[in-house]
Amino acid sequence: MSSYQRREQLIRIGRSLFASKGFEAVSVEEIAATAKVSKPIVYEHFGGKEGLYAVVVDREMRALNDSLFQALSGENAHPRQIVERTTLALLTYIEENAEGFQVLVRDSPTTDPTSSFSSLLGDVSTRVGEILEEWFKRQKLPAKHAPYYAQMLVGMTVYTGQYWADQRKLSKEQLAALIVNLAWNGLSRMEAKPELRFESGKARKDKDKVDKDKVDKDKVDKDKVDKDKVDKDNNAGESSAPPSNDGADDAVTASSDPTS
Fold first, then answer.
1. How far apart are CA 158 and CA 163, in angstroms?
2. How do residues 134-163 score in pLDDT, each as one tens digit?
């Protein structure tokens, strides 16, 4: 095996081990044993585990970066087409580079932050934000909010992709359609000045007022019912009283009076 072939072999083995176990759990001894070489061979090619890991991450970063930014290119493309292309680009990378994706999303050692997966997502979010900003201006939406929506879109797609990497119950196209359905229908119906309908301070204040008005109304209604009941009882008592005998008593008195 040539030196180049040996190096590629170690990269493949390292990627597989880092994907399944994570950086910290993999040792140079395990890498060498899996490749059936001595530890000095690993050190000779990469200087140690850290060097091998850096090469693996760099390759995966380059592959994913090229794929995503190619999908994000195209000035005349419809924004929905860009959302579809970028979603499919990420899912295609996950599908074709499952181990590489696992390496990127796993906890990594403290290395150069410019080569981290988070840094790549930051770059992608920046580009998505630029695209959204132009589209927002055409739609007369606040462009200053574009970076936030970009982070939401990228985060939603990446975390859904992570879930799909372990739960392949849908095809790539089916999952992409679900993501685009949520992302695009949300984008196409955005409000210029969105508000929380139920959990904002104003909403809670309005609800408290409605509740108070209802309590007050219920109390007024109850008081009226109670008053009506009292009036009804009083009227019923008066109508059931025995008739007066004053007239009869006067007649008896008159008939017994000898002078009458």
1. 9
2. 888 888 889 999 999 999 999 999 999 999
CA distance 217 to 195: 29
How many CB atoms neighbour CB 232 within 10 A? Answer: 10
| Phi/psi-derived region of residue 194, left when phi > 0, alpha when psi is between -120 and 50, beta in every other case | beta
Contact 163, 101 (CB under 8 A): no
- The answer to whether the CB of 70 falls within 8 A of the CB of 89 is yes
The span from the CA of 46 to the CA of 53, in Å, is 9
Sequence letter at residue 214: K
Average pLDDT in the 29-46 region?
96
Report the C-alpha gap between 130 and 73 in whole angstroms: 11
Give the pLDDT confidence score for residue 11 in this predicted structure: 96
Give the pair of three-digit tokens for residue 136. 């927002």
Q: Is-contact 107 133, C-beta < 8 A?
A: no
Nearest-angstrom CA–CA distance, 187 and 190: 5
Residues 6+ apart with CB under 8 A from 139: 190
Q: Which CATH number fits domain 57-188: 1.10.357.10, 3.40.50.410, 3.40.50.140, 3.20.20.70?
A: 1.10.357.10
State the pTM of this model: 0.70
DSSP class per residue in 216-234: HHHHHHHHHHHHHHHHHHH
CA atoms within 13 A on the CB side of 4: 0
